[in-house]
Amino acid sequence: MIVSLSCCQLSxxxxxxxxxxxxxxxxxAHGQVVYIDFWASWCIPCRQSFxxxxxxxxxxxxxxxxxxxxxxxxSRALADEFLKQIPANFPVIYDPxxxxxxxxxLKGMPSSFIVNRQGEIVSAHxxxxxxxxxxxxxxxxxxxxxxxxxx
Length: 151
Known about the structure:
This protein is of the alpha/beta class. It is built from 6 helices and 5 strands.
């Protein structure tokens, strides 16, 4: 499946839809491995995933890795409060209407998708814990290897 969406938080005040913002972000990230993370302030595993996502972004960004996150809270204030407690060192796209969530047919929270350098979704995940974290990191690392970059 080729991803033809664009992502990124950027600003809730712009006239672009969340879906258009995601598409723009994905287009800008073409050629990189992208981890798309869906989260909400009420999601307990999301609180555990953010420090890991920050670490992954810092560790793998020089190798062509990017995290994009989509917040699904109906209230921006709830998301902002979450981010005060657990900051994100990656773009956050606000999707209070669930536009992107419908497009990606989410099955639970948190949900994530890994997009390869060719712009294809290569895996989808639901949930987050230490065991899954290790598995997700192995997938990302494999996609960042020079052999994977040439495919």
